[in-house]
């Protein structure tokens, strides 16, 4: 159904347009967690609509009560299958001192596209869009819709509100998400599951102000020390084992077939350490690492604040402290139950500590086999020369769970990013090899769905 030579010619001819559009997108600092960037997020939405309409699609902005959603696409016929392609256009902040260039000044270094948002998630979004344009040009019987969010990096708080506009965002027959990372270059890996997330702040106030430790130390309670005691009661720092009673009760272990697929992903401990800058890990067993990052829940400590934070040592006993934590959750855990267990445990260890929830996302487990999975396998093979391994993703995408709940349709993943591209890291980039392969893979995926018809 796909003329490979014709597709190759199309992709090569689309390179200039891809690079021009990505450059424009990267230079819009669409940082959703920074309220001062609201104007840039609106500008990004307007540019996205323009890109869709310039390619011949219909497009519009859907208001959500927060930052908007951009939706649009091509409708070829009411009896044709409809696929929605999800990406996000908001980005992480870029304040790290390790940046070697201005993060929102696009740089094209002979096919390496540098700048915040290049790989997360603007480059993959454009690859999918240009792959769809080829499918439309071929006249294939498929409706391709795009759903571009602007709040993914803050947990998609208003995404469900946007989906209520059924006129602008109709229910599709399936969804494909392109916002995930391979395990290694040259070895496609497509997740079928995402961990959930629960964030929390543990706060303790024992005084109205900081006090001189020489005058009060020994008698005064130290909220930072007490919070560290609470943290130690929640998680084993060396092994990562969560010690909250009942925490593991609902965990579903991966099957032998799932583990076999994990092992086929090309995971390499040395590359993993290099990609994320680790000097050492809790384990060097590849199988154990993959279980830990994809299929097991976690308890992480992100920050401890209070007292003196400047250079040197100021001898005060803090009057208050705050511990910032989160849990990554797996099927069949829920953030609601995890939070209840956390509150109960902390109250037992230290009744003076207040626990406040800071956002939550449900875990997701999708399709591991079946016709849609087979279609993704064939598409990745056509785009990149190798079939993908099906893995789970350690991170969370709030919109995926929302779409699953609202539409109850198959949700598949066709990610294009690599670990070295720097998701959420300084010196983020994307590359033409992944972009061009992505265009081909998406074109083939749309051909597969058109051949499959409505199901």
UniProtKB/TrEMBL annotation:
<keyword id="KW-0378">Hydrolase</keyword>
<dbReference type="GO" id="GO:0046872">
    <property type="term" value="F:metal ion binding"/>
</dbReference>
<dbReference type="InterPro" id="IPR002933">
    <property type="entry name" value="Peptidase_M20"/>
</dbReference>
<dbReference type="Pfam" id="PF01546">
    <property type="entry name" value="Peptidase_M20"/>
</dbReference>
<keyword id="KW-0479">Metal-binding</keyword>
<dbReference type="GO" id="GO:0006508">
    <property type="term" value="P:proteolysis"/>
</dbReference>
<keyword id="KW-0645">Protease</keyword>
<dbReference type="InterPro" id="IPR011650">
    <property type="entry name" value="Peptidase_M20_dimer"/>
</dbReference>
<dbReference type="GO" id="GO:0008233">
    <property type="term" value="F:peptidase activity"/>
</dbReference>
<protein>
    <submittedName>
        <fullName>Putative Peptidase M20</fullName>
    </submittedName>
</protein>
<feature type="domain" description="Peptidase M20 dimerisation">
    <location>
        <begin position="192"/>
        <end position="352"/>
    </location>
</feature>
<dbReference type="Pfam" id="PF07687">
    <property type="entry name" value="M20_dimer"/>
</dbReference>
<dbReference type="InterPro" id="IPR051458">
    <property type="entry name" value="Cyt/Met_Dipeptidase"/>
</dbReference>
């Amino acid at each position: 159904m796909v003329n490979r030579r014709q597709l190759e010619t199309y992709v090569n001819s689309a390179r200039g347009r891809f690079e021009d559009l990505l450059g424009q997108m990267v230079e819009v600092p669409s940082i959703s967690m920074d309220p001062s960037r609201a104007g840039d997020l609106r500008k990004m939405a307007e540019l996205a609509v323009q890109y869709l309409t310039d390619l011949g699609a219909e497009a519009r902005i859907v208001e959500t009560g927060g930052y908007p959603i951009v939706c649009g696409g091509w409708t070829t016929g009411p009896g044709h299958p409809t696929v929605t392609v999800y990406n996000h256009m908001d980005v992480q902040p870029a304040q790290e001192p390790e940046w070697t260039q201005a993060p929102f000044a696009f740089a094209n270094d002979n096919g390496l596209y540098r700048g915040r948002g290049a790989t997360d998630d603007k480059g993959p979004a454009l690859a999918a869009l240009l792959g769809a344009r080829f499918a439309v040009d071929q006249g294939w019987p498929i409706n391709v819709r795009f759903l571009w969010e602007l709040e993914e990096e803050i947990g998609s708080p208003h995404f469900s509100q946007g989906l209520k506009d059924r006129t602008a965002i109709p229910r599709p027959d399936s969804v494909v998400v392109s916002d995930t990372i391979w395990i290694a270059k040259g070895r496609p890996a497509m997740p079928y599951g995402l961990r959930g997330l629960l964030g929390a702040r543990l706060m303790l106030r024992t005084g109205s102000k900081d006090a001189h430790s020489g005058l009060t130390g020994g008698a005064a309670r130290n909220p930072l020390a007490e919070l560290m005691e609470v943290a130690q009661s929640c998680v084993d720092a060396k092994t990562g084992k969560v010690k909250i009673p009942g925490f593991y009760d609902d965990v579903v272990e991966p099957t032998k077939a799932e583990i076999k697929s994990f092992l086929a992903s090309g995971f390499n401990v040395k590359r993993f350490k290099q990609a994320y800058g680790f000097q050492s890990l809790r384990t060097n067993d590849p199988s154990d690492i993959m279980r830990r990052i994809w299929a097991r829940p976690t308890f992480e400590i992100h920050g401890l604040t209070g007292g003196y934070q400047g250079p040197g040592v100021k001898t005060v006993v803090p009057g208050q402290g705050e511990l910032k934590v989160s849990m990554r959750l797996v099927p069949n855990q829920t953030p609601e139950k995890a939070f209840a267990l956390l509150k109960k445990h902390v109250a037992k260890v230290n009744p003076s500590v207040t626990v406040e929830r800071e956002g939550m996302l449900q875990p997701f487990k999708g399709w591991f086999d079946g016709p849609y999975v087979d279609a993704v396998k064939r598409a990745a093979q056509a785009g990149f020369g190798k079939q993908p391994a099906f893995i789970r993703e350690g991170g969370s995408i709030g919109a995926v769970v929302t779409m699953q709940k609202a539409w109850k349709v198959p949700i598949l993943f066709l990610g294009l990013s690599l670990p070295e591209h720097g998701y959420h890291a300084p010196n983020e980039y994307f590359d033409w090899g992944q972009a061009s392969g992505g265009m081909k893979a998406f074109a083939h995926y749309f051909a597969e769905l058109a051949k499959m018809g409505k199901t």
